[in-house]
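Hey,
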Amino acid sequence: MFFGKRGKMKYYFAPLEGITGYRFRQAHHQFFPGMDAYFTPFVVATYTKKLKSREKRDILPENNAGVPTVPQILTAHADEFLFCARYLADFGYSEINLNLGCPVGTVTAKGKGSGMLRSPEEMDRFLDAVYEGAENIPVTGEDGAVHPIRISVKTRLGWENPAEFERLLEIYERYPLSELIVHARTRQELYRGRPELAVFSMAFHREQKRCSSPEEISAGREQPCSRTYFGREADAHRLTLCYNGDVRTEADLAFLEKTFPGLDRVMIGRGLLSDPNLVTRLVTGRESDKKTFREFHDTLYAAYDEQFHDDRIRINCMKELWTFLGESFCDTGRYVKGIHKAGNRAEYEAAVRMLFANCELQPLKDGLPHSENG
């Protein structure tokens, strides 16, 4: 079913380490147009002030030409973040994303990602240093005007209890975030259970009622409200919230818009890996077809061949994708299982041919409970 382009809704592709690198982004953008932005898997900012070769390749401008790309940074130290931000600004990026949401244990144990949510006071000091330093990183926007680099934040609701988000929200409101992307779970929930829609609703309606947005203030229509932090007065603006978590179908998106009137941006991850045509259907009305899925697969498979020169790595990357993409095919388990069992190039290619020859496309199941109370 085609619901049509939803007003000014923006659609973001969430990053997933090991899958959504620049080769994937290029192929997806080619065959499934309509995304407003692709967020990169995080670049790890470290004390060495050097990026890994793989991370550098992923954010090189020539590897992202024509693809709307927002780099993401992971770190727990403001000086490392600012170094990386300057590096990305020199590449021409005018916006970057700060990862405060990654729930992986090896990340959170170092106080990075959602690990920083355990200590709101430390997070507050970190953000203060980040946004103060960002004022000295000028970039040129699409309109040709020079302004400080824009920084968005991707967060979870807290470390252990969704009630923690109210305190975190108070901190986020103190800073000029370009937007706050909220995965509606805590770190401890990982990806289990249903998203905490009631908590997102609290935050969304709170921000709708808050003081003026930066756009309203710059247009002279409203006035900012002020609060004191770190011993000085600072404008506290209404946050622009983006929803993230378990969006898989058009019905999920329709539910979000009905539940949160005014919501104008959504980040989708696993839902788009399972159904790469989801946003394209919404934006253009183009239905899914196996031919396009096959062309997307073959283009990405060939790109990995050029990138890795190693059949084992190439096939493993494709298997990671099939963990999700297989959901779009009517399969009793035989054909996707055959892909995952493939031990070499010939076996993999034969298994893929069998799947496309024997399995038709099917719609995904909804990811969200379609009532405000879940």
